[in-house]
Amino acid sequence: MDILDFNLDSPFFYNWSGKFEAPDKNWIHMSRELLDFEFIVMTEGELYIAADDKKYVVHPGEYLIVCPPCHQYGYQASDCSFYWAHFTYHDLQNDPVHHSEFPGLPDADEKRILLPVQETIPRPDRLIVLLKQLQNCDIKYRSMNLSNYALTTCLCELFSQLYLSNRQASVKGGKLQLYSDIVDYINWRVREPLYVNEVAAYFGYNEKYITTFFKKISGTSLKTYITERKMDLAKAMLTDTNMPIAQIGYEIGFSDNHNFSNAFKKATGQSPSDYRSTYAGRTLYHK
């Protein structure tokens, strides 16, 4: 495994970003000399891409960081779509430390993040929303400082999802397994109506116990976590599809648009339509 160790005494330097959609099923990534980092987040299909002699297949829900300098090229047709961002590091030196094994988490006061070159994203919907906001910052404000920090936020979010989420370091054995099983169950049923008593019944515990257990580990109530997962999914759908708002509410388990809109506004401070108009703009490129 190739793990990149970035020092964040200063933010990453944003170059440009967009969303790519293959024009047809025979599209192959261009051949070029890559002089900055490319961060790719897959949404649909598979991307067949190489950097020098290393070949990668990137699946939906995965990311890839292609490191410079290298000869980047597609080696097979890729009918796919993905978000991408180019950035540089350390005043254009582009020289993170590389580890072949996980070196252990940085101390809390260290300004470092660790990112494998390729990995599955635990919460791709959250990352997609941040990438949409990055594009919105670039299009609306044209502020390099803002774009630099927005990009850095995306990569810090990824690091947090991979290594800092769920406070798992302090939980061991069966308790960690139960917590992970609950999270997996919620993710499995996130598009359905889902209530705390159903989660408790599924795992054979009473509602009070499962609520106390989950909050002790995560710091968030089980009811709030279920709502947050649904709202994260709604945000991604609002910004990345043209699906009607009422249909989005239905897709994540709300029986009517009124209840969905109220829940969304309570969680985000914006109505679904206002959120969509704020963040839905995206830049499409055919490479």
Helix-strand string: EEEEEEEEEEEEHHHHHHHHHE
Instruction: Supply Rg.
Output: 20 Å
Lateral arrangement of strands in the main beta sheet: 12-7-4-9-2-13
Tally the beta strands.
13
Topology:
Layout (H helix, E strand, L loop, with lengths): L2 E5 L5 E9 L10 E3 L2 E8 L2 E5 L2 E5 L3 E5 L3 E5 L6 E8 L8 E3 L12 E5 L1 E3 L3 H18 L2 H21 L8 H16 L7 H8 L3 H12 L3 H19 L4 H7 L5 H12 L3 H8 L4 E2 L2
Parallel strand pairs: 2-13
Antiparallel strand pairs: 1-10, 1-11, 2-9, 3-8, 4-7, 4-9, 5-6, 5-8, 7-12
Helix pairs in contact: 1-2, 1-6, 4-5, 6-8, 7-8
Walk me through this protein's architecture.
The protein is 42% helix and 23% strand. It is built from 9 helices and 13 strands. Strands 12-7-4-9-2-13 form a 6-stranded mixed β-sheet, covered by helices on one side. Strands 3-8-5-6 form a 4-stranded antiparallel β-sheet, with no helix packed on it. Strands 10-1-11 form a 3-stranded antiparallel β-sheet. α4 crosses α5 and α7 (245-251) packs across α8 (257-268). The chain is globular. The two termini are 28 Å apart. The relative contact order is 0.14. The mean pLDDT is 92.
Compact description:
The chain is of the alpha+beta class and 287 residues long.
Core attributes:
287 residues; alpha+beta; six-stranded mixed beta sheet; four-stranded antiparallel beta sheet; 9 helices
